Amino acid sequence: MRIENKVIVITGGASGLGLATAQFMVNEKGARVAIFDLNVEAGVKAASDLGAEHAMFVQTDVSQEESVQKSVDAVMARFGAIHVCINGAALATGFKVLGKEGKAAPLSRFAQATAVNINGVFNVMAKCAEQMAKNEPEAGEERGVVINVSSGAAYEGQIGQCAYSASKAAIIGMNMPAARELGAIGVRVNAIAPGLFLTSMVAALDNKVLASLKEQMQAPMRLGDVREFAHCCAFIVENAYINGETIRLDGAARLRAK
Ligand SMILES: NC(=O)c1ccc[n+]([C@@H]2O[C@H](COP(=O)([O-])OP(=O)(O)OC[C@H]3O[C@@H](n4cnc5c(N)ncnc54)[C@H](O)[C@@H]3O)[C@@H](O)[C@H]2O)c1
Fold it and tell me: What is the torsional sign of CA 127, 130, 131, 136?
């Protein structure tokens, strides 16, 4: 699908990988973007920096059905269509199965991660796909593209990442059935499993943890550049034959247990 003039919903678009993708899609590809994020201050700034003609921000909690429906309605009212949906909003929860003194982790902590990282992705994908179905097919076949953001943690989760890893693996699981089903209406579904990129989510990690992670980078021996993530999103949108796939974008890095 050509990106110019298309409307791209980006959840988590106020920060990190989502923000870099919004900037890349507007400034280098001529798209219009709708940023769905909880963070009002960062979201308003991101949209205003990109310019009102090309960007809008709607405060959204991806885990809430009504909130996402309102945001999708706002995009349809403003831009008239949704062609691409990039699901980047997530919580990077970290906690052990057994906490201090061997006490079991409360189920609510696990549920908090799955509510945003799994339910939120499905929620936004489904509501955007409903709108994509109304698009005129491009080149007779494509009405939309969904990109769900997984993580290398889906494959090699570290100690403390049970909830996060399980939620990111769920995205890989959703990929193929969604691609097979939505293919009937000309919508492709793919996932990206990033390695380590320097965003606020990663910068917030404990210094010791961050230093150990940096040591584990492989080839190239550095963290990912957020523009490399944005470029991968553009590649998926532009290549009509990539479908039901998860791309590991990690410079061949495989993290240790801790
Ligand atoms: N940064 C990395 O190295 C890395 C590695 C692997 C995977 N990822 C994944 O990439 C995606 C983006 O990560 P990032 O590093 O840019 O994170 P980030 O923390 O910079 O951005 C995440 C954004 O999601 C928003 N958000 C959180 N909960 C939300 C909710 N319920 N509704 C709407 N918005 C919500 C936050 O406000 C924030 O703006 C995430 O899915 C993350 O799991 C990141």
Answer: positive
- Structure-token match 């959204």, residue found: 60
Q: What spacing in Å lies between the alpha carbon of 140 and ligand 1's midpoint? A: 34
Q: Are strands 144-149 and 246-249 parallel, antiparallel or unpaired?
A: unpaired
| Residue owning the nearest CA to atom 26 of ligand 1 | 89
Domain map of the chain by residue range? 7-247
Looking at residue 52, what is its pLDDT?
A: 95
* Pocket, ligand 1, Cβ cutoff 6 A: 11-12, 14-18, 37-39, 60-63, 88-92, 116, 120, 149, 151, 194, 196-197, 199-202
Give me the pLDDT at residue 212, please. 87
Task: Name which residue sits closest to atom 11 of ligand 1, judged by CA.
Answer: 88
| Mean pLDDT on 69-82 | 98
Closest C-alpha residue for ligand 1 atom 19: 201
User: What pLDDT shows up at residue 198?
Assistant: 87
pLDDT higher than threshold 90 for residue 86:
yes
- Class level of CATH domain 7-247: alpha beta
Give Cβ neighbours of residue 35 (< 8 Å, ≥ 6 apart): 10, 13, 14, 18, 19, 22, 43, 46, 47, 55, 56, 57, 58
